[in-house]
Amino acid sequence: MKYEPSRLEILLTKVAFILYGKSVYQAFAISLPLKDSDRVLDFGCGMGTVARYTAKRLTNGHLTCLDISERWINECRKNLRGYDNVTFVQTEFPALENKSFDLVYCHFVLHDISERELNRIIPALAESLKPGGMLVFREPLKETEKISLIKSLMEQNWLFPKDCRITDIPVMGNALECIYIKQ
Ligand SMILES: C[S@@+](CC[C@H](N)C(=O)[O-])C[C@H]1O[C@@H](n2cnc3c(N)ncnc32)[C@H](O)[C@@H]1O
User: Fold this and answer.
1) What is the DSSP letter of 39?
2) Is residue 2 part of a domain?
3) Are 36 and 102 spatial neighbours (Cβ–Cβ below 8 Å)?
4) Is the CB of 69 inside a 6 Å radius of any atom of ligand 1?
């Protein structure tokens, strides 16, 4: 469901980015299993907290930043000003260029999406990957029911787990990070 952030929410996210940019967002971007020539989708990019660091790694590749919110996409565009390897997309529907992405990642996004929407979004994300492509997510560990649903939707859509681990994220607490591969 579409939701636009308040000015206060945008301000607080900018402060969090200044304080925790490296330990939270850069650390996740560095851990992504990507090559510098990959085509990557940041699904639910927000203000581009992770995208800022991912774009730097894609020296010969391309990053698509997608968000449902017009305000967040505008903030993301400002945050990544100067990067010519990034496209910004505001849409509810993730299947933009079917089977074109090497990697799709979701950073603290999927747990916020309703069960009904996840049933539509996860198949579309799976469809947007090339065979052998990877989907990576990091979500709060305490969202146990959502995580179970996410995992079962992944496998129903031919995405199989390569690695899953629990990490302790500054301020945010324990999170589950998983890498899935498209068969
Ligand atoms: C908690 S924020 C995380 C933003 C960013 N990934 C980060 O970690 O800083 C969740 C983001 O997902 C976006 N979002 C929620 N539902 C969405 C959907 N159906 N399609 C695309 N983006 C969505 C929201 O607008 C918001 O920007």
Assistant:
1) E
2) no
3) no
4) yes
